[in-house]
Amino acid sequence: MSGFLPVPDASAYLRGEWRVLRSVRDLASGAEGEFSGTTVFSPLDGGGLLHRETGNFVWQSVARPAERTLRFLPGAAPGTVDVRFADGRPFHDLDLTTGHWRTEHPCAADLYRGEFTVYGENRWRTTWRVGGPAKDQLLVTDYTRDPPAGALPTARRPASGSSGPRGPRP
């Protein structure tokens, strides 16, 4: 699948702080909302990562603080993750080795269908389509982070002998 960045170790890729922007649409009513904040993936004692998301959620013009906590534990295969709710209940599996993953999570009578896509070293997205008698929603979350301090830009260098920012090369 072109356009996706394969990730050999999901925990190593996710570790650190990410900016989060999530759109939430109720497909039945047309209502829309947005969450913005940060997600920090920090090491857990015994292995895995603690996922702590904090920010503000605006729904129907009403803003309120929002947060959630998940546990990303080592998965069954190397480089994969077993995602759990804070209380330990199973949520879903996650395998980013191809840069793209689909999963499902039944929640009472509703079904969450998730898609995870890695676009680059510092950008990935989740899309959850929720359907059932209680919900008909679409949640799209973009995660971005700044490159580490001192990292070189990924722009291409001018070809040898061409004019770059400093003029022709000798």
Describe the structure.
The structure is a single chain. With 170 residues, the chain is mostly beta strands. The chain has one helix and ten strands. It has a ten-stranded antiparallel beta sheet with strand order 6-5-4-3-2-1-10-9-8-7. The N and C termini lie far apart (42 Å). Mean pLDDT is 89; it is low at 154-170.
What structural keywords apply?
1 helix, single chain, ten-stranded antiparallel β-sheet, mainly beta, 170 residues, disordered C terminus, 3% helix
Q: Helical element count?
A: 1
Tell how many strands the DSSP assignment holds: 10
- Strand ordering within the main sheet: 6-5-4-3-2-1-10-9-8-7
Shape: globular
> Helix content range of the residues, please?
under 10%
Note the run of SSEs as H and E.
HEEEEEEEEEE
- Give a short account of the largest sheet: 10 strands, antiparallel
Task: Summarize the helices and strands and which ones pair or pack.
Blueprint: H1 10-14, E1 16-26, E2 32-43, E3 49-59, E4 62-74, E5 81-85, E6 90-94, E7 100-107, E8 110-120, E9 123-131, E10 136-144
Antiparallel strand pairs: 1-2, 1-10, 2-3, 3-4, 4-5, 5-6, 7-8, 8-9, 9-10
In short:
The protein is 3% helix and 55% strand.
